[in-house]
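User: Let's play a game. I give you a shape written as tokens, and you guess the letters that built it. Ready? Here's round one.
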């Protein structure tokens, strides 16, 4: 799950990286749904731009439940366009 947390904050400055989550993740590692800000999409876009194959590989393995909707929404928009 740390890999995905790093992916959504990839290339963001420290202040922006802190704003990725609208609600902070549970400290107990709970798999409840997380709320993300638009910074998360920017981070994923940065990661995809620099590491497209690694992104696709992680997507094929299946994103962790809290990140699943964000990941599929991002890649869906990449494939289908807005």
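Assistant: Ready! My guess for every position:
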């Amino acid at each position: 799950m740390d890999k995905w947390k790093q992916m959504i904050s990839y290339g963001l400055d420290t202040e922006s990286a802190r704003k990725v989550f609208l609600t902070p993740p549970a400290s107990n590692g709970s798999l409840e749904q997380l709320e993300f800000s638009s910074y998360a999409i920017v981070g994923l876009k940065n990661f995809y731009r620099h590491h497209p194959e690694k992104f696709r590989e992680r997507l094929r393995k299946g994103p962790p439940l809290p990140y699943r909707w964000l990941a599929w929404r991002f890649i869906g928009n990449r494939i289908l366009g807005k």
